[in-house]
């Protein structure tokens, strides 16, 4: 398992724009804040890995994004940041940043939870709390109609 916090304002990885320069296509990230954010995520991940080998096999990744709290949202109320940036675009930036730093490829991430909340709920500063762990069945899903684990298919007694 690896867990770390990345301070800073989370930036989404959105669409890319394509240009033709000479005879080559060039892809440019639409958000200027994305590359510095991905670099910060990657640096925090490499620091947390402490030289360990990349995680192998299926993985679970849980990410909590602590977003800036606008002045019109009272501090004594939870409030959810149901505004841009999209949760999935924030997650895409983190997933791509961890490729070749924590795991071989982001396709290894098979499960997880992602939250977007205002700063001050679980974190005291803006950023992202990231936890990546091997995905092992603990039979938490319970048995299906045939008496097998709904996750791994193992017969449950």
Provide keyphrases for this structure.
about 160 residues; alpha/beta; 60s Ribosomal Protein L30, Chain: A; two-stranded antiparallel sheet; globular
CATH architecture: 2-Layer Sandwich
Task: Please identify the top-level CATH class.
Answer: Alpha Beta
User: How do the helices and strands follow one another from N- to C-terminus?
Assistant: EEEHEHEEE
Q: Main β-sheet: number of strands, strand sense, barrel status? A: 5 strands, mixed
* C-alpha geometry: globular
User: Which topology does CATH recognise?
Assistant: 60s Ribosomal Protein L30, Chain: A
Low-confidence stretches: none
Please give the share of residues in helix: 10-25%
Tally of distinct domains = 1
**DSSP helix count?**
2
Number of strands: 7
Structure description:
This protein has 157 residues and is of the alpha/beta class. The chain has two helices and seven strands; from the N terminus they run βββαβαβββ. It has a single domain (2-134), classed as Holliday junction resolvase RusA (60s Ribosomal Protein L30, Chain: A, 2-Layer Sandwich). It is 18% helix and 27% strand. The strands form two sheets. Strands 1, 4, 5, 6 and 7 form a five-stranded mixed β-sheet that branches. Strands 2-3 form a two-stranded antiparallel ribbon. The two termini are 29 Å apart.
């Amino acid at each position: 398992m690896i867990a770390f916090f990345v301070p800073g304002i989370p930036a989404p990885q959105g669409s890319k724009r394509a240009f033709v320069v000479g005879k080559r296509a060039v892809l440019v990230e639409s958000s200027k804040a994305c590359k510095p954010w991905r670099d910060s995520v990657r640096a925090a991940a490499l620091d947390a890995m402490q030289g360990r080998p990349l995680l192998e096999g299926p993985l679970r990744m849980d990410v909590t994004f602590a977003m800036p709290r606008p002045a019109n949202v009272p501090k004594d109320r939870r409030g959810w940041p149901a505004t841009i940036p999209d949760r999935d675009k924030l997650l895409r930036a983190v997933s791509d940043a961890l490729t070749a730093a924590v795991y071989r490829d982001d396709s290894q991430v098979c499960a997880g939870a992602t939250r977007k909340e205002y700063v001050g709920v679980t974190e005291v500063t803006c950023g992202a709390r990231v936890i990546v762990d091997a995905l092992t069945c603990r039979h938490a899903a319970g048995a299906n109609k045939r008496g097998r684990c709904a996750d791994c298919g193992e017969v449950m007694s």
